[in-house]
Amino acid sequence: MLRLLNLELQKLLLSRTSKVLIFVSFILPFTVLILSSIKINFFGFFTLELGELGIFNFPIIWHITTFFASQFKFFFAIVVVSMIGNEYSNKTLKQNLIDGLSKKEFILSKFYTIVFFSLIATLLIAVASFFIGMYYSSYTEASIIFRETSFLLAYFTKLIGFFSLCLFFGMLVKRSAFALAFLFILYIVEWIIFGLISWQANMDIAGKIQDFFPLKSMYNLIDQPFQRVMMTKFPEKGELMYDYAVHGGEIAIVLCWTAIFIFLSYKLLEKRDL
Q1: Can you give the pTM of this predicted structure?
Q2: Count of domains observed in the chain
Q3: Can you tell me the distance from the alpha carbon of 223 to that of 246, in angstroms, rounded to the nearest whole number?
Q4: Among 131, 148, 169, 214, fewest CB within 10 Å belongs to which?
Q5: How many of the other CB atoms lie within 10 Å of CB of 163?
Q6: How far apart are CA 73 and CA 54, in angstroms?
């Protein structure tokens, strides 16, 4: 595993574009979290400090930070599809296979890289969330501090699933721009299918079926936290209640899709004439 991971990292570090995108995908969410904790003075009229709104309290901070950090996954998605596009354009894929790397090892090297960078991103968010929470939160009990760290697992799973989908599209079309366009097409297709099912059946059935779609299942891992923040400010409003917890079944669905995408990527490579 380490050999395959080291091989892929060497390729990425030789590309200036990849290094910049990797840096941005790691640092930008971390920087946004830090900046969000700074007091902002609006021309002397008032001062905004998000920490005073309670969004950096434990345990809600795990929900807030992982949700917003996941919005920046597109930067590393570019790196993932570029990994495949560069292999074909630079003929390195064929050379690797000639040098003795099997097709299975080639796909595994990409997957190990996805897991590696997803793990680093998760650890960075975990460290940033912990220290910001320790600074702002009034709760110091360990049971409260670590109560909802399951959002970190959801974040990690979401990254692996999304990047595995990008890997599959990269293998399918062999071009970075087209692979990213397929993400948008898949998003539209999912909503078209949802609309057709809701038209033929009903919204509840359509919603349950939609939860098994690739992009929708990844989104479901970390629900939007805005409604939850409102619940803390207006606890008497029962209509704001919703299920924001991380569920094992939702993680299992994304892991199944991840396995399918990696398997299909391997099958595409196995049957393709290089």
Answers
A1: 0.90
A2: 1
A3: 8
A4: 131
A5: 26
A6: 26
